[in-house]
Amino acid sequence: MTFFNKLARDEAGATAIEYGLIAALIAVAAITAMGALGNQLSTTFNQVKTEMAGPAAT
Length: 58
Prior knowledge:
Keywords: Membrane, Transmembrane, Transmembrane helix
Transmembrane segments: 16-37
Organism: Aurantiacibacter flavus
InterPro entries: Flp_Fap
Largest sheet: none
Protein name: Flp family type IVb pilin
């Protein structure tokens, strides 16, 4: 029973969970930003490719 009382009063686990949640939030934000950046880069490179090909490609 003493083990469960110590476990209930221990706040180190709560701190670890908070850090884990913060890390997960940062990861989701980074993935979202990188996805949007990837789409924008793809569009930019396709426009450059079209411009470099010139009128012969159309």
